[in-house]
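Reminder to self: tokens first, then the designed residues, so the page reads top to bottom the way the pipeline ran.
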């Protein structure tokens, strides 16, 4: 996509105003209940399988322990 030279801004006040206008427009039109991916903080699967507490040992050989 070509960059139009007419759209380039060098004045810092103009750039700040454009950014503020864009953020205001975003905040006006954003969804009140935004979608959160399940594995992100606030998602339905976030920390669903947390690490076990200290002192708990997990055996991964599923009943085939060598008890001799």
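Designed residues (68 positions):
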């Amino acid at each position: 996509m070509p960059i139009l030279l007419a759209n380039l801004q060098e004045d810092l006040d103009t750039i700040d105003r454009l950014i503020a206008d864009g953020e205001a427009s975003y905040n006006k039109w954003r969804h009140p209940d935004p979608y959160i991916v399940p594995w992100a903080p606030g998602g339905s699967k976030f920390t669903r399988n947390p690490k076990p507490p200290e002192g708990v040992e997990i055996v991964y050989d599923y009943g085939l322990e060598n008890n001799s």
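The mean pLDDT is 80.
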